[in-house]
Amino acid sequence: MRCIYCSKRAGFIRRVCTPCAKVVAIVDRAGGEVGLAGLVDIFVAEGLTRDQVDVVLDAQVGDAPTIRDRLTSNMTNHLMRNLGMPGRQSPEDVMKVRTAMRSGGGAGTWTGGEEPPDHH
Fold first, then answer.
1. Beta-carbon contacts of residue 40 (< 8 Å; ≥ 6 apart)
2. What's the whole-model pTM score?
């Protein structure tokens, strides 16, 4: 079977290869408790490369938000709560913003070569 994250061989009945499973386990275990710098330190200590980590964080599995979307949502909500605001950014919200940015569409975006809209 092929890994659902990196498409490399995962095993006979496994859906996730060992390096990708390590990344997912680290994020599940520490993603909400440590910042990005802390996660990077853990990934390095586990012997994972940046490419291995990026593939997993950015993998689009079905219609679900990516793991990076989930991490971004968690960090945004944590920051907002620490500033005294309600943290209501869902991983799906982050995914919508990310896909709108990639496609150049969505409210508040303009394409390259255009002047930004004058709001003031």
1. none
2. 0.76
Q: Comparing 85 with 103, which gets the higher pLDDT?
A: 85
| Terminal Cα-to-Cα distance of the chain (whole angstroms) | 56
Q: Which two tokens stand for residue 13?
A: 């009945």
Handedness of CA 69, 23, 11, 15 (dihedral sign): negative
Q: pLDDT tens digits, residue range 95-114?
A: 988 888 777 666 555 566 66
Dist. CA 51–CA 48, nearest whole Å = 8
Helix (H, G, I), strand (E, B) or coil at 42: helix
For residue 25, give Cα distances in angstroms to 37, 43, 113: 17, 11, 43
